[in-house]
């Protein structure tokens, strides 16, 4: 009888320990993502306020600031439900948290499938908005930083090709400045050369006179 009671106590202790570990893990996970969601939301709001000065992109959903705001709201609300559910041991909130995570995963899967099914339309849509962004490339710092990063990392130039940069008033061939018929430096092929008098002269040439890649 005493042995049976001891085994029962051990089982209850193990169950309680597992429950506390699971609860602590869920609270920690939810709290971290809750705070992260709030931070992403704050950054998105700040970026959107700055973006309103230069409305470059036709579709708001292509703007990085809008994407950050949407992502921040979703992360903040979903994680808040998880924190509240784990703190209050509310079964209904835990179920809601599980269902919301499942719905988010399903939406991501559907979005990926839709992007593959309509990839040609998606590419045309993105290229059109890139061309619109190129018009105000030097005025929209948000778009400029992203475009420079993409062109440097993926070694590309423009949306479809380098000709897209003719949409910009400074790079159009009819422009009077030194950037006419050229492209931004992020489009250019950079080669390591020995620093000599002639190479220093080359480095001092205007950006528009640099070679570019397709």
Automatic annotation (TrEMBL):
It is found in: Cell membrane; Late endosome membrane; Membrane. InterPro entries: Tetraspanin/Peripherin (IPR018499), Tetraspanin_animals (IPR000301), Tetraspanin_EC2_sf (IPR008952). It is a multi-pass membrane protein. It holds the Pfam family Tetraspanin. GO terms for molecular function: enzyme binding. SUPFAM superfamilies: Tetraspanin. The keyword Transport does not apply. The chain crosses the membrane at residues 26-49, 61-84, 96-118. Disulfide bonds join 157-173. GO terms for cellular component: late endosome membrane; plasma membrane. The keyword Cell membrane applies. GO terms for biological process: protein maturation. It comes from the Eukaryota. Keywords: Cell membrane, Disulfide bond, Endosome, Glycoprotein, Membrane, Transmembrane, Transmembrane helix. Part of TspanC8 subgroup, composed of 6 members that interact with the transmembrane metalloprotease ADAM10. This interaction is required for ADAM10 exit from the endoplasmic reticulum and for enzymatic maturation and trafficking to the cell surface as well as substrate specificity. Different TspanC8/ADAM10 complexes have distinct substrates. Promotes ADAM10-mediated cleavage of CDH2. Negatively regulates ligand-induced Notch activity probably by regulating ADAM10 activity. Interacts with ADAM10; the interaction influences ADAM10 substrate specificity, endocytosis and turnover. Belongs to the tetraspanin (TM4SF) family. This is Tetraspanin. It comes from Podarcis lilfordi (Lilford's wall lizard). The lineage of its organism: Eukaryota, Metazoa, Chordata, Craniata, Vertebrata.
């Amino acid at each position: 009888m005493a042995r049976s009671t001891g085994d029962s106590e051990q089982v209850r202790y193990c169950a309680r320990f597992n429950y506390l570990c699971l609860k602590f893990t869920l609270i920690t996970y939810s709290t971290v993502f809750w705070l992260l969601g709030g931070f992403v939301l704050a950054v998105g709001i700040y970026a959107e306020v700055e973006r309103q000065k230069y409305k470059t992109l036709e579709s708001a959903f292509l703007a990085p600031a809008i994407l950050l705001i949407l992502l921040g709201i979703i992360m903040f609300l979903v994680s808040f439900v998880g924190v509240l559910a784990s703190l209050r041991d509310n079964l209904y909130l835990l179920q809601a948290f599980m269902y919301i995570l499942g719905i988010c995963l399903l939406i991501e899967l559907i979005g990926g499938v839709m992007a593959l099914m309509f990839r040609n339309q998606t590419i045309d849509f993105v290229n059109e908005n890139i061309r619109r962004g190129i018009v105000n490339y030097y005025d929209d710092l948000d778009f400029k930083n992203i475009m420079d990063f993409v062109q440097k990392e993926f070694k590309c130039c423009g949306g479809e090709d380098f000709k897209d940069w003719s949409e910009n008033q400074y790079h159009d061939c009819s422009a009077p400045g030194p950037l006419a018929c050229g492209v931004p430096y992020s489009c250019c092929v950079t080669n390591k050369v020995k620093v000599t008098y002639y190479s220093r002269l080359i480095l001092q040439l205007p950006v528009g006179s640099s070679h570019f890649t397709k």
